[in-house]
């Protein structure tokens, strides 16, 4: 029943094909092609340049599925016989085990209501069904064979084997065909999928073949509308004899991962449009590109004029999807910019040492540090100085907060970026930092969390403050955000973290963690941002703009939602809370504007619009929010974000109501086509 598509030989519909854009303001542009079945369609998998598509018809007596295999490059459509199922039998996953036409080629479908595997063999040209409920229960270690199913997004073909997992506990299995009687067998691997360690409720997980290895991808979604990528992890299964363990993938540059709704796949990178070591995925009309080593994230502009395919284009192999990146401008050596009438100096190192020493004395902070990194001669004329000495020297100069992030494959080096000049200082981090993530920042201290430890680290003095294990790993990574009452070096400091049900409280004086349980936080909708300590209590800003207050006086604990205080902004993509000029201030980011309000505590409490920050500047991120009075006047009345446009930090100017880049002062329309590092934060050099 294999035939090449002809005019109207099959019901056709448009699909969205993504191709490289020549417009540097866009990542992708859309072209339209025709695909089988324009209504009720589902794309189950993409393998070998083939796409498995189904269209279902349901009534009270039966379900009828019509499936096709489509090869877009050759416009070939292979129609499969209709599949008749009982009512409530729903297909939840599908796999293509080898290219159609190959010996033993097979389509495999997974049904969850009665728990059947349904196969179509191209050799026998018929559908066969096999009940697997008892086998799944045995592999998943559940007593009742009606309690477990095969997980929908955890089915993949890797290294000649079809892998799947149970849904309840994530036990792995291999689905094999007996070569003699062609019966299917589910063989347990005695291994589970990685334990979910996300602090989000909305998580997408995929099992896939990545460069010949069985890999696991977990994407955590959060933010105001659950549309922001909060974290992403890529692990691979290592086999050593009978020992099986999941370890982090160290970003191979020759492969990229693509995530779609029902499936995932990887492909080798042979073309400049696709970057190795990156994950590409689509969410709500935007494409995201994530480097899964340094966790840098960039997003496209919203894709307009999408065809009616469930609001989402599907992903096919790399020769059918083209993604392009912005190309940077060429850099020229200094000699090309010099006046031809002047004596040429091809290298700054050729300058006399006294002139280099004079230049070094005029540099501070980041610039001085970078000057020393150039070469040995530069280090001779610019001796190493202690950060404490540098800070004293910088009291009369500009020393604004820095943006801290990790970039590239090196975990030992962190970037400290000056938002005024966009100059960068590289600081090597001690070994104990390598497996942790920055979760919070205050007064020059960074809160570092891993799965096993939690501590404060001061990168300018190399001091470290250990925190007890407390109530286990829930404190380290399950908290949506953290807040400090004062510097962690203070004996009176209090650290607070929050989840969807708990408030975790640590007093340095008491030396132990205490957890307080508030079911569903009494209806409060927490966001992935930091609470603010203000006037003796911790204030939380929710996803819906509501405010909650946590207070602990001696042994008296209270959690209160300010229900009468309405959100000052109706529609926004992110929000932040901070203290500015002894006022509690909220920041709401809309697509092309930033709105700022201060809280009037006079009953009834209200938010008042702030039109000018006067001599203040705000530095906001999910992990740290604070205000400063900058020493340079051109930094006043601005809000600085952790997003980069090219190599420059993006800020918002309240005087003009526009976004700009710090270095080149370019106008930026909005946050699209910017890059941010998921665990970056602002730090105050102290």
Tell me what you see in this structure.
- By secondary structure, the chain is mainly β.
- The N and C termini lie far apart (73 Å).
- The longest helix has 9 residues, at 353-361.
- A hairpin with a 4-residue loop joins strand 24 and strand 25 (296-299).
- It is 6% helix and 44% strand.
- The strands form eleven sheets. Strands 21, 22, 23, 24, 25, 45, 46, 47, 48, 49, 50 and 51 form a twelve-stranded mixed sheet that branches.
- It has six helices and 52 strands.
Task: Sum up the overall morphology in one term.
Answer: globular
Mean pLDDT: 80
Give me the number of helical elements: 6
Distance between the first and last residues' Cα = 73 Å
Q: What oligomerization state is this entry in?
A: single chain
Radius of gyration: 28 Å
Structural class: mainly beta
Q: Report the sheet-strand fraction.
A: 35-45%
Major sheet description: 12 strands, mixed
Number of strands: 52
Unreliably modeled segments = 1-32, 307-312, 318-343, 391-398
Share of helix, binned: under 10%
């Amino acid at each position: 029943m294999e035939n090449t598509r002809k005019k109207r030989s099959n019901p056709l519909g448009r699909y969205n094909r993504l191709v490289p854009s020549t417009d540097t303001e866009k990542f992708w542009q859309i072209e339209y092609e025709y695909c089988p079945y324009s209504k009720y369609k589902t794309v189950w998998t993409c393998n070998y340049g083939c796409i498995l598509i189904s269209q279902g018809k349901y009534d009270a007596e039966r379900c009828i599925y019509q499936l096709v295999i489509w090869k877009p490059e050759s416009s070939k459509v292979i129609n499969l016989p209709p599949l008749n199922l009982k009512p409530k039998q729903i297909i939840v996953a599908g796999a293509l085990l080898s290219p159609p036409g190959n010996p033993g080629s097979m389509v495999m479908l997974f049904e969850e209501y009665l728990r059947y595997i349904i196969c179509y063999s191209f050799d026998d040209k018929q559908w066969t069904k096999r009940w697997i409920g008892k086998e799944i229960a045995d592999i998943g270690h559940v007593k009742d064979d009606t309690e477990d199913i095969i997980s929908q997004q955890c089915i993949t073909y890797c290294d000649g084997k079809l892998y799947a997992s149970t849904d309840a506990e994530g036990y792995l299995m291999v689905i094999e065909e007996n070569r003699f009687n062609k019966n299917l067998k589910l063989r347990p691997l005695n291994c589970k999928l990685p334990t979910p360690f996300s602090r989000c409720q909305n998580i997408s997980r995929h099992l896939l073949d990545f460069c010949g290895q069985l890999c696991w991808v977990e994407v955590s979604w959060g933010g105001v509308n659950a549309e922001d990528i909060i974290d992403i992890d890529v692990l691979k299964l290592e086999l050593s004899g009978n020992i099986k363990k999941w370890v982090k993938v160290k970003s191979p540059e020759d492969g990229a991962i693509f995530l779609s709704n029902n499936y995932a796949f990887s492909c080798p990178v042979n073309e400049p449009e696709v970057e190795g070591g990156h994950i590409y995925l689509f969410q709500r009309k935007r494409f995201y590109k994530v480097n899964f080593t340094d966790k840098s994230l960039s997003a496209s502009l919203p894709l307009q004029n999408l065809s009616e395919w469930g609001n989402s284009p599907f992903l096919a192999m790399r020769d059918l999807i083209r993604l392009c990146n912005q190309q940077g401008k060429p850099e020229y050596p200094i000699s090309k910019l010099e006046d031809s009438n002047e004596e040429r100096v091809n290298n700054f190192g050729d300058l006399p040492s006294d002139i280099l020493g004079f230049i070094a004395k005029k540099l501070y902070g980041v610039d001085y540090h970078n000057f020393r990194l150039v070469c040995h001669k530069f280090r001779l004329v610019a001796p190493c100085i202690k950060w404490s000495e540098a800070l004293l020297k910088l009291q009369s100069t500009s020393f604004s907060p820095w943006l801290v992030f990790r970039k590239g494959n090196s975990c030992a080096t962190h970037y400290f970026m000056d938002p005024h000049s966009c100059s960068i200082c590289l600081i090597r981090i001690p070994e104990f930092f390598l497996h942790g993530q920055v979760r919070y920042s205050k007064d020059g201290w960074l809160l570092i969390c891993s799965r096993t430890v939690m501590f404060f680290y001061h990168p300018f003095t190399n001091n470290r403050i250990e925190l007890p294990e407390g109530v286990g790993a829930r404190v380290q990574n399950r908290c949506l955000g953290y807040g400090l009452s004062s510097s962690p070096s203070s004996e009176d400091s209090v650290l607070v973290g929050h989840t969807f049900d708990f408030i975790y409280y640590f007093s340095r004086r008491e030396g132990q963690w205490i957890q307080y349980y508030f079911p569903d936080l009494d209806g409060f909708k927490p966001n992935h941002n930091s609470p603010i300590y203000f006037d003796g209590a911790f204030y939380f800003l929710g996803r819906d703009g509501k405010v909650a207050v946590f207070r602990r006086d001696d042994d008296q604990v209270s959690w209160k939602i300010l229900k009468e205080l309405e959100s000052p902004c109706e529609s926004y993509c992110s929000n932040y809370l901070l203290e500015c000029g002894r006022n509690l201030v909220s920041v709401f980011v809309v697509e092309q504007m930033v709105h700022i309000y201060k809280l009037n505590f006079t009953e009834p409490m209200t938010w008042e619009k702030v039109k000018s920050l006067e001599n203040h500047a705000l530095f906001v991120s999910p992990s740290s929010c604070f205000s400063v009075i900058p020493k340079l006047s051109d930094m006043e009345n601005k809000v600085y974000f952790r997003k980069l446009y090219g190599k420059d930090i993006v800020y918002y100017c309240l005087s003009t109501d526009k976004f700009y880049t710090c270095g080149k002062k370019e106008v930026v329309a909005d946050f699209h086509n910017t890059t941010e590092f998921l665990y970056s934060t602002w730090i105050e050099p102290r």
